[in-house]
Design a protein that fits this description.
This is MFS transporter. By secondary structure, the chain is an all-alpha fold. It has 13 helices and no strands. It has a single domain, classed as Growth Hormone, Chain: A, CATH 1.20.1250.
Length: 469
């Protein structure tokens, strides 16, 4: 079939290579002897000729692609939520020193993400099997280094360098796996609703992983929690091997890490994502300190509150997809930001003994989190497709996306923890003034940043609606 044939919006991208600006899903539904002989691909090939191929949005294909999102998201809870609290409370590390370590390790991790994205793009240009092998290696390193972080074998003299190196390897391997997995999903393409569904499967199952990571340490300890993460990594990788595969596109320039920055639409969307992301990263870093000291809530409240937060996000995902079908991606994301602001304003007013009221805050904020998880990634996939870069530079886009995510987490840990220390707060503090600062930084600072992000998104949508389709 000639490469010059254009794709049909009624039947999907069935031609090779696909049109670079086609909005239909860009995976190859036909079974091939080399890599597409599984039942999923045979089922895709049997679809009626007149129907769009949207296999990744179907339940069977969706969970196979999305299941790996569970352990990748699972790992973010011990790495970004439990680790700071564990090292401060259990190992007695001072907040300022801990913040410096987290900032340095996450900045170093962020610097390698564009290189990882370039690597993944070049692996995709060779074959999906190479990407799967790369993901398997990253998963093994990730499981081992996370265990070493929580059960360090090194002597006291090597505590700091050992923790720094292990944290860097853990974050880098998690990034490598996330970039490979997210880049795979971005290559599947589709219209706004299809892209939203692809991301929603990944993030919805990711939320299931986060829920498990939130409750298992309290129920069974860190050892059982990390063992569960390793098991989920194996199951997720196995399911990924049977997921819909993007159509290979041979590209001599695949993996150009500079390409995303040449697209104004990407730069504009990234600015909104960065501002909104740091607004979310601050409460993620401080939530356990807030629950323990501001609310003075002991077990089982921390696990219950985190489970409610992430459970509400998972339950809200179908509602956000309905909102996308009615309002579009941009306006639905703005609605999510507004709901988050309302929820965190309520959190600023709570005090000791108000854990039941904070449960209501967690439910509302968690519902808003569903929009943050599903919609920005769908917008990014649209930007890649409209730039003509799908199948060529997806990993580069996702790599820079991950850089911003890491910088947000680094700033949250590296700036906010020392700031609270300077304001007089230390873990276990009961001074009213220090606890008031904790509540303000935990709840009100994110509200201000989230409001700025919503304003920026509204101005972007008004001036460049084509960027946000």
């Amino acid at each position: 079939m000639r490469a010059s044939r254009s794709c049909s919006s009624a039947s999907g991208c069935r031609h090779a290579p696909p049109s670079p600006r086609c909005a239909a899903p860009c995976w190859d539904p036909s079974p091939r002897r080399d890599e597409r002989t599984g039942p999923l691909h045979r089922a895709s090939a049997r679809r009626p000729e007149g129907r769009p191929v949207s296999a990744a949005a179907d339940a069977g294909a969706g969970w196979r692609y999305g299941l790996l999102g569970a352990p990748v998201a699972f790992a973010s809870v011990p790495l970004y939520v439990h680790l700071p609290h564990h090292y401060a409370q259990t190992l007695g590390w001072p907040l300022a020193a801990l913040g410096t370590l987290l900032l340095a390790s996450r900045l170093a991790d962020a610097l390698i993400d564009p290189l990882l994205g370039r690597w993944v793009d070049r692996l995709h240009a060779r074959s999906p099997g190479r990407v799967l092998a790369f993901g398997a290696g990253a998963a093994v390193v990730m499981a081992l280094t996370m265990w070493l972080l929580f059960f360090p074998p090194w002597p006291a003299a090597l505590q700091w360098p050992g923790a720094a190196l292990t944290l860097l390897l853990a974050c880098a391997s998690a990034s490598a796996l996330a970039i490979a997995h997210q880049g795979w999903g971005a290559r599947l393409g589709g219209d706004a609703l299809q892209r939203g569904r692809i991301v929603a499967w990944r993030e919805g199952l990711g939320l299931a992983g986060v829920l498990a990571a939130s409750v298992t340490p309290e129920l069974a300890g860190y050892a059982a929690s990390l063992a569960l993460c390793a098991l989920l990594l194996g199951m997720g990788w196995w399911a990924w091997t049977a997921a819909p595969r993007p159509q290979p596109v041979a590209a001599a320039d695949a993996g150009d890490w500079r390409r995303p920055w040449q697209q104004a639409a990407f730069r504009r969307l990234l600015a909104v994502f960065a501002l909104n992301g740091i607004a979310s990263a601050i409460p993620a870093t401080l939530v356990l300190f807030y629950i323990a000291d501001r609310l003075q809530a002991a077990a089982p409240w921390p696990g219950l509150l985190l489970a409610a937060y992430f459970g509400a996000a998972a339950a809200a995902l179908p509602l956000w997809l309905r909102a996308v079908a009615r309002w579009g991606l941009a306006r639905s994301w703005m609605a999510g930001m507004g709901l988050s602001i309302l929820a965190f304003i309520g959190a600023a007013a709570l005090d000791a003994g108000d854990a039941p009221w904070f449960l209501a805050v967690c439910l509302a904020a968690g519902a808003a989190l569903g929009a943050d998880l599903a919609l920005p990634g769908a917008l990014l996939s649209g930007v890649i497709g409209r730039a003509g870069d799908r199948g060529r530079h997806d990993g580069a886009y996702v790599g820079w996306w991950q850089v911003v995510t890491k910088l947000n987490l680094a700033l949250a840990a590296g700036a906010v923890l020392p700031l609270l220390a300077a304001l007089g707060y230390q873990p276990g503090e009961r001074d009213p003034a220090a606890l008031a600062w904790l509540a303000a930084v935990y709840a009100l600072l994110p509200c201000a940043l989230k409001a700025l992000a919503a304003l920026l998104l509204w101005r972007l949508w008004a001036a460049h609606p084509e960027d946000l389709a």
